[in-house]
Amino acid sequence: QLVESGGDLVQPGGSLRLSCSASGYTFSAYAMHWVRQAPGKGLEYVSGISDDGTRTYYADSVNGRFTIFRDNSKNTLSLQLSSLNTDDTAIYYCVKERIRGWYDFDCWGQGTLVTVSS
Amino acid sequence: EVLMTQSPDTLSVSPGERATLSCRASQSVGRHLAWYHQKPGQAPRLLIYEASTRATGIPARFSGSGSGTEFTLTISSLQSEDFAVYYCQHYNNNPPWTFGQGTTVDIK
Q1: B55 interfaces chain A, CB cutoff of 8 Å
Q2: Which residues of A47-56 are buried (b: 16+ CB within 10 A; e: fewer)?
Q3: What does the pLDDT look like over B69-89, one tens digit per residue?
């Protein structure tokens, strides 16, 4: 099970930290990712992190502004968002890969809403 | 970046009919292709991985095919719970990966 938190209303240029609490499986054994969905729009890959946290990847649209990290001792995935703009308004989903090795996503959280507006 | 293009954007189908959805990649992704569906107000759910393998708990009326750049999702006999938005996604090589824009399957 994945449970996101931290979504909020934030002004353009602001920052926010999202968290995802994982349970029911060995968190440290799997890569994790964030996927977002703007209101009424499709899915957009945001960022991914390896099982041990040493490798991170970002979509071009967020590279340099967002930072993904994880704490395997607390079964927690996080996404630090900065320099936010209105295009970042979306539901942010925490997702788990199905098997080890950078694969598809078999478990999704319920999402947390980030609204960027003045 | 690999561009994923789905067609059609909307597919109107009657219950019990067959639905065929397409997904095209701008370059080869091998068989590293997944399909998800999403119902209103819910998170997406994995249907198919590795182009043709059904995920756990997915009924046999869902089937996937293809490799390289051309992929198809077929729903053999649409049930009421199948009316949703369907997305393809590649996971070839390292991230970032991309999703198709989605196909809405609605009731005819």
Answers
A1: yes
A2: bbbbbebeee
A3: 999 999 999 999 999 999 999
Q: Give chain B positions within 8 Å (CB) of A102.
A: 91, 94-95
**Amino acid present at B107:** I
Q: Are B91 and B34 in contact (CB under 8 A)?
A: yes
A53 pLDDT above the threshold of 90:
yes
Strand order in the sheet with B62-67: B4-7, B19-25, B70-75, B62-67
The whole-number pLDDT of residue A102 equals 84
- Looking at chain A from residue 48 to 107, which residues have their Cβ under 8 Å from any Cβ of chain B? 48, 55, 57-60, 93, 98, 102-106
What does the pLDDT read at residue A100? 86
Is B98 at the interface with chain A, CB within 8 A? Answer: yes
Contact B97 A93 (CB under 8 A): no
pLDDT at A101: 84
A57–B100 CB contact, under 8 Å: no
Classify residue B55 by its DSSP letter: P
Q: Which residues of A touch B38 (CB under 8 A)?
A: 43
Please state the φ and ψ torsions of residue B41, each to the nearest 5 degrees.
Answer: 75, 5
Q: Which residues of B90-105 are buried (b: 16+ CB within 10 A; e: fewer)?
A: bbbeebbbbbbbbbeb
CB pair distance less than 8 Å for B49 and A110: no
Strand duo B85-90 + B103-107: pairing: antiparallel
Asked, as a colleague might, if the bond just before B40 is cis with ω within 30 of 0, I would say no
